[in-house]
Design a protein that fits this description.
6 strands; two-stranded antiparallel sheet; Rossmann fold; globular
Length: 199
């Protein structure tokens, strides 16, 4: 199921293509009928449709420019604190208004979907924010770059204070799998870490 980024046309035509892409993802990826879909289903379908548009650019990007002059950055970080990506991706693709119109035609509010998205994060501090800033800066400057990291089962920790002490609780990082993160299976290396979990 591929929702190619619409070629420059009128906003209405782009909105129609995006609506078709979201409905396709809702049906064939999420496995839901529009009448039975909840807000989370619509969010996932929209995120997958947007990711399809991004993947089209990923595939084309390495083939632009000459091999002699085109350089690529491969950035490795243990942490990436990239935040919420749906609106960021729509803005970067220049299709926020068109997606808003596409969803409105399905009686779905883009702003409501925006609130459903969790912060996509792997790590817990400044290194992750720095990595995200580097990647965003390279994208803004048009520098071909890929970010590589560790695929944790649990990402950013929730922190809370109980009885005057800070407590950390794991928060699933699995939401990265649907938005921009992909496994490079041939480069997978399992790491065993010595750690103790106390309750």
């Amino acid at each position: 199921m591929n929702a190619k980024l619409p070629q420059p046309k009128s906003s209405e035509e782009i909105a129609v293509k995006l609506r078709e892409a979201v409905l396709g993802r809702l049906t064939y990826t999420i496995g839901k009928d529009p009448g039975a879909a909840n807000q989370r289903d619509w969010f996932l379908a929209t995120a997958f449709a947007v990711r399809d548009c991004i993947v089209d650019r990923w595939i084309v990007a390495p083939n632009t420019g000459s091999a002699e002059t085109q350089r690529h950055v491969y950035y490795m970080s243990l942490e990436f604190l990239i935040g919420r990506l749906l609106m960021d991706s729509l803005n970067n693709l220049g299709i926020t208004g068109e997606m808003r119109a596409a969803l409105a035609g399905l009686d779905v509010d883009l702003d409501a979907l925006r609130e459903i998205e969790n912060d996509a994060a792997l790590g817990n501090g400044g290194l992750g924010r720095l990595a995200a800033c580097f990647m965003e800066s390279m994208a803004t400057l048009g520098i071909p770059a890929h970010g590589y990291g560790i695929r944790y089962n649990f990402g950013l920790f929730r922190q809370g204070i109980r009885d005057g002490w800070q407590h950390e609780y794991p928060r699933s990082g699995s939401n990265l799998a649907i938005r921009g993160s992909s496994r490079a299976q041939k480069f997978t290396i399992p790491l065993d870490l010595a750690a103790t979990l106390r309750r």
